Every structure is written in C-alpha cells, then in structure tokens.
Amino acid sequence: MPDGTVIRDRGDGNPQVIKSDGTISYGTQADDSVKTGEDFMLKFGNLRAAYLDGVREHKELTLQTAVANKIMTLCKKNGHILSKAEKDVCCKTIDDLRTNTDDQYIADLLQIARKELE
C-alpha cells in the first residue's frame, strides 16, 4: 500500500496487517502507540515473528524486506525508550535474524537497526 502497510493473507479469514510503524494486527485491532519499553518489545516481537514467517514460507523476500524496514524504523524512532536489558535482547535477536538471510540489503537494514540500539 502507498503508506507502507503490508497486508498478508493468512488463509484463515483474519489477515495480518503490518503497518509502516511496525504495528502488527490481525483483522482490525491495533494500538499504534509506542510509549513504553513493553510497547516496543511487543511490536518488536511481532515483527520478529512476521520476519521468521517470511523465512519459513519459501524465503518471501518482499515480506522480509518490508519487516526489516519496519524493524529499522521502530529502532530509530523508539529505541531510546528501552532499558539496557531490553536493548541487549533486541540486539541479540537482530543478530539472529541477520543469520536467516542471504540478502545483503536486508542484512544491512537489520545492522542499522542494531546500531540504533547500541
């Protein structure tokens, strides 16, 4: 979509909606705000799951790219609200996600996201 939203048909009548700010919802429910570390971790975890779904589903490059961009944006805009422990978890997770791609652009996006959290 023009605003960066990705809608993914899960085949169960409840589409996965990944908004440009990293919010993931199923159907129409979503709270778009990131005000706390817990909010960030929830969105980050959902993006991680969507990314890994793209890896498992025959290397869906479009989905992986969209989610990597959303992770980078989330980290750039909201990484400052995280505690050191939360940043450490996210950095380790990003390192793990980078090992699941052989696409240099996606790896670079994830590296940018990681640097925002250091």
Sheet-strand content, in percent, reads 5-15%
Tertiary shape = globular
Gyration radius, in Å: 13 Å
Order of helices and strands: EEEHHHH
How would you write the strand order of the largest sheet? Answer: 1-2-3
What oligomeric state is this? single chain
Query: In angstroms, what separates the terminal alpha carbons?
Result: 32 Å
The description of the largest β-sheet is: 3 strands, antiparallel
Write the layout of secondary structure elements.
Blueprint: E1 6-8, E2 16-18, E3 24-26, H1 37-56, H2 61-78, H3 84-98, H4 104-117
Structural description of this entry:
The longest helix is centred in the middle third of the chain and has 20 residues. The chain is mostly helical. The protein is built from four helices and three strands, in the order E-E-E-H-H-H-H. The N and C termini lie far apart (32 Å). A hairpin with a 7-residue loop joins strand 1 and strand 2.
Main attributes of the structure:
118 residues, 57% helix, mainly alpha, three-stranded antiparallel β-sheet, 4 helices
Provide a brief overview of the structure.
With 118 residues, the protein is mostly helical. The protein has helices spanning 37-56, 61-78, 84-98, 104-117, and strands at 6-8, 16-18, 24-26. It is 57% helix and 8% strand.
